[in-house]
Design brief:
- By secondary structure, the protein is of the alpha/beta class.
- It has 4 domains: 9-114 and 242-323, FAD/NAD(P)-binding domain (3-Layer(bba) Sandwich); 124-238, FAD/NAD(P)-binding domain (3-Layer(bba) Sandwich), CATH 3.50.50; 372-524, PurM-like, N-terminal domain (60s Ribosomal Protein L30, Chain: A); 525-703, PurM-like C-terminal domain (Phosphoribosyl-aminoimidazole Synthetase, Chain A, domain 2), CATH 3.90.650.10.
- It is built from 19 helices and 37 strands.
- The strands form 11 sheets. It has a 6-stranded mixed beta sheet with strand order 33-35-32-36-34-37, with helices on both faces.
- Helix 1 packs parallel to helix 3 and helix 10 crosses helix 12 (473-493).
Length: 703
């Protein structure tokens, strides 16, 4: 995550298409000093279009047909932002993403794919593939057995989809293929067309050819010859067009809304913008909208992005005129053709399967080789050890709306505490463990508030302590602004005002907060007070340290990372409110010293012991699997001294970032508290109970 020299060029990869995964792979193999990559993707896993028919048929699992973006981005040193862009400002070099600050770029590459032209309320487009798969599942559940479903499009995509669905539906639904040409695959050799016709007959797929479909109206698929066909739904695999916001941005596009690029893949209208795949149209050398061309564009795109970043001359890409096409027929057979020659059979399917799996392995089996001379230190709580730019960033934040705060332009914030309230203060600070500054800011703020909630205080004010690597002022300001806007979103939601802070240059990004809370006298929740018989409640699953450590090494699947991020962004406000209504005897939050360390603090303060039930302790997705492979945070070894080498304790010693609350309640109140926590959507659990301290015995006993 730490650059070897100042960041000079921000390359943003918009879209996780086939060309961009190759760009990531090549930058992972050969990083470019001074260049920072950012990948913006709609989904955490990007599907490979070549395996979509096999996925539909059931030949491949979801995991086998998707590339997990989290480990690939981690190995490329790329920031991963899972969101959908809605606009580009090519002049101001910014990308609009709802709900977060604009994402700035020096160079932009667009590989967002395209979507079939689907008439309004007329069915489902095959692309984007991710949303198509979700809608296909809903279609199967909603459409009654025996209904007819149409596939519109007689090209390779439509034909292969119809044949794949015939296997998937297995007679449950009737299938109809609509082809605008006199027969499907009009541009393929005669041998291939005959093989497809025979396969369609054997699969029971009806064929309507020589007409186009214009829409779906009350169960009628309207055709260009004035007739109609009764269908329950229609799946469209016709020609694609680019998303509307591409042309609306002012970037030069063709009639289908695809970015016009030169053979170097650079936009004809904006030198800082590149594009590849279905959303791009190469001037003077067009190619079909097929995944094979996007795959082959990846290498020249990566090379030219690197050249553009270094100010070197770009190289023109000359794709081959004819590519090998292989179309799955189902039941272990396929037909392939190139240069007018075609073959079919099981060996052709074996070849296609081998090619596809080999391509996927390039991206799914990459692993980061640790440098034996460099210690890979964890960020977040795993990193704990025994002025101008900030002002510009703060200027982008909304003003405090708390009437008790007196805003000032002096050197410090001036506060007027409410009468009768005690002040509770805490501070937390750590270096970035995620390369998305907005999300990192959200998590840092949620984490900082935990100490206040652990003592039953209501957050009031926060001061930021931020540092970013040296770069151009605008880059540093953008980095800080993104962090602080993310943090401000969390702080304001919990009624806490960000009233100032301090910034500095550093070797890596870091952020922390000094926070102040308010609590009524006599209502402070402390670590001491546990009594034998009390039930121990944990309000969040464990495993953030393990997941973050695995992410640094490129071993974490995107759904695991997303689950950890989603949990870390949730403050303990709701848990604290519910807990205080059930009057806990003692409490703390689980952070850097892990569950065992923070429980030990409570037990020592209360003069008691505790028994923990390991099977009752909730864990984040993937945490146990990663721990089983020896993945752990760098602070875990120090935390382990509390438990020795007892087996199965990896989660207990895992340092938590923005972890949950650990509460002790009498048995007659614990059940009601847990029920209320679960009803609120929290993954809480009773994980053990307090027992008398035994002389010579460990404070924490495991079951």
């Amino acid at each position: 995550m730490q650059a070897s020299r100042p960041i000079e060029t921000d390359i943003v990869l918009l879209g996780a298409g086939h060309a961009h995964v190759e760009v990531l792979r090549r930058f992972a193999l050969r990083p470019e000093p001074g260049v920072r990559l950012t990948l913006i993707g709609r989904e955490p896993q990007t599907p490979y279009s070549g395996m979509l028919p096999g996925l539909i048929r059931g030949d491949y699992s979801h995991q086998a047909a998707h590339i997990d973006l989290a480990p690939l981005a981690a190995m490329a040193g790329a920031r991963l932002i899972l969101a959908e862009a809605t606009g580009i400002d090519p002049e101001g070099c910014g990308i609009t993403v709802p709900g977060r600050p604009e994402i700035a770029f020096d160079l932009l590459s667009i590989n967002v794919g395209g979507a079939p032209v689907v008439p309004a309320a007329s069915g489902i487009g095959v692309k984007p593939i991710g949303s198509f798969l979700d809608r296909l599942h809903r279609l199967e559940a909603d459409v009654p057995p025996g209904a007819r479903i149409a596939v519109v499009g007689g090209g390779p995509g439509g034909v292969e989809l119809a044949l794949a669905l015939a296997v998937r539906f297995a007679g449950h639904f009737r299938l109809l293929l609509v082809s605008a040409t006199p027969e499907p695959l009009a541009l393929a050799p005669a041998t291939a067309r005959r093989a497809v016709r025979q396969a369609l007959v054997e699969a029971g797929v009806e064929l309507v050819s020589g007409v186009t479909a214009s829409g779906l109206d009350a169960g009628h698929l309207l055709l260009s010859d004035g007739s109609f066909v009764e269908v329950a739904s229609a799946l469209w695999a016709t020609g694609v067009e680019g998303p509307a916001w591409l042309a609306e941005s002012g970037i030069a596009c063709d009639r289908s809304g695809c970015v016009r690029v030169t053979p170097t893949l650079r936009s004809v209208s904006h030198a800082q913008i590149f594009a590849a795949g279905d959303c791009a149209a190469v001037e003077g050398d067009p190619r079909p909208k097929a995944g094979v061309w996007a795959v082959r564009a990846g290498a020249p795109l990566a090379d030219n992005l690197r050249r553009a970043a270094n100010g070197s001359a770009l190289k023109a890409w000359k794709p081959q005129l004819d590519a090998l096409a292989i179309l799955g027929l189902g039941h272990g057979r396929a037909v392939g053709w190139r240069n007018g020659m075609a073959v079919q059979g099981r060996k052709v399917w074996w070849l296609k399967d081998r090619i596809d799996r080999r391509w996927m392995r390039m991206y799914t089996e990459m692993r980061m080789a640790p440098d034996p001379d460099v210690s890979m230190r964890c960020g977040g709580c795993g990193a704990k050890v025994s002025a101008e730019v900030l002002a510009g960033a703060l200027a982008t934040l909304p003003a405090a709306d708390n009437p008790d705060l007196l805003p000032t332009l002096d050197d410090a914030a001036v506060l007027k505490p409410p009468l009768g309230k005690l002040l509770v203060q805490s501070v937390d600070h750590f270096r970035a463990f995620l390369d998305d500054p907005f999300v990192f800011g959200q998590i840092a703020a949620a984490h900082a508030l935990s100490d206040l909630y652990a003592m039953a205080a209501q957050p009031w004010t926060a001061l930021a302590i931020a540092s970013v690597p040296y770069a151009a002022s605008r880059k540093m300001r953008a980095e800080l602004a993104a962090m602080l806007q993310g943090a401000s979103e969390i702080l304001r939601a919990d009624g806490c005002a960000l009233v100032g802070g301090h910034s500095a240059e550093a070797s890596e990004t870091a952020l922390g907060f000094s926070v102040t809370g308010l609590v009524d006298s006599g209502r402070v929740l402390r670590k001491a007070g546990l009594q034998p018989g009390d039930q121990l409640i944990l309000t969040k699953p464990l495993g953030t340290g393990i997941v973050l450590a695995g992410h640094m090494r490129g071993n974490v699947r995107a759904p695991w990372l997303i689950a950890a991020i989603d949990q870390m962004r949730i403050t303990n406000a709701g848990a604290a409110r519910i807990a205080m209504a059930h009057r806990p005897r003692a409490g703390t939050d689980v952070t850097g010293f892990g569950l065992a360390g923070h429980l030990r603090e409570m037990l020592d303060a209360s003069g008691v012991g505790a028994v923990l039930r390991l099977e009752a302790i909730p864990a984040l997705p993937g945490a146990r699997a990663l721990a089983a492979h020896g993945i752990e945070s760098t602070l875990a070894a120090e935390n382990r001294r509390l438990l020795g080498d007892a087996p199965g304790t990896e989660l207990l010693v895992d340092p938590q970032t923005s972890g949950g609350l650990l509460l002790g309640l009498p048995p007659n109140r614990a059940g009601g508290c847990l029920e209320a926590l679960l009803d609120s959507g929290l993954n809480a659990a009773i994980i053990g109970e307090v027992e008398p301290a035994r002389e010579g015995a460990p404070r924490i006993r495991l079951e």
